[in-house]
Amino acid sequence: MTKLIFPKPIKIDYDKPTSEQIFEFLKDNIVSMKILPGQKIPENGLAEQFGISRTPVREAIAKLVDLGLVLVRPQRGTFVTKLSITKILEARFIREALEVAIITHVTKFQTPELIAECEAIIIQQEQAAKENDALNFQYLDDAFHQKLADFSHFYRISTLIQHEKSHIDRVRNLSLQELDGHYDKALKQHRTLIQHIKMGKSKQAIMTMTTHLQEILKVLNSMQKMHPEYFEDHELDPLIQQTNPIPS
Fold first, then answer.
1. N or C, which terminus of the chain has less Cβ within 10 Å?
2. What is the domain-level CATH number for residue 212?
């Protein structure tokens, strides 16, 4: 029976939902690229490795399917999805539309408590950057954006953003690991964004957020050239390409 061997296997805590622990574990390994695009995930081997039944594994897999991180092929097995340029560009487009609306709201109604909480996250990101901890840096980036989204009190927005960004997360993490300067750039943009929000400068805050979210466009070509085996598509739909031009 095929088994997945992970660098940091987890110990199941039976006081918590097992399927949720397996889901988070698999998601972390997929997003951090420890389980690579196209790799098969043997459900039986995973259940055996962690000493659990297949039921919580299947429940975890179902949640990963919903996020677009894995694909179940009948009679063939469960596989990590390859990266799709088209889906990444579409997700970036949707996320920008939502987060620009969030920033407009946040800048108008921001509070000292929100500013302090966001600045605390930035401090944690600075530490993650010093430690070159790409995965933790990305989680803190997500926490920063989540904090702003939650302030809108429209909680379906957060769910939509979480779902869409699953197509982006692996490229973001890969670029942090393999390209120089992205920690500093992201931190600078977060600091600038908070300053504009604090000063009530809506237009400048929107411009900063837009620039921040379009950074993915600047690394996508590089990642595809460096790792073509991770991608499922190599040509873009003309309309999407026109809407999301990738710098050469």
1. C
2. 1.20.120.530
Which residue bears the tokens 């995930």? 41
The whole-angstrom distance between residue 150's C-alpha and the CA centroid of its chain comes to 17
d(CA 25, CA 230): 21
pLDDT at 219: 86
| CB-count exposure of residue 101 (10 Å: 0-12, 13-18, 19+) | middle
Tokens in use for 105? 């709201």
In this prediction the pTM is 0.79
Q: Which residues of the chain have pLDDT under 70?
A: 1-10, 234-248
Residue with tokens 């908070």: 194
pLDDT, one tens digit per residue, over 135-187 is 899 889 999 999 999 999 988 888 888 888 878 889 988 888 888 778 899 99
CATH of the domain at 42: 1.10.10.10
Q: Provide the terminal-to-terminal Cα distance of the chain, rounded to the nearest Å.
A: 45
* Long-range contacts, stretch 14-17, CB < 8 angstroms, 24+ apart: 17/56
CA angle 90, 92, 97 (to 5 degrees): 100
Check residue 8 and report its DSSP letter. S
Task: Please indicate, yes or no, whether residues 137 and 69 belong to a single structural domain of this protein.
Answer: no
Number of domains, the chain: 2
Extract the tokens encoding 150: 């939650």
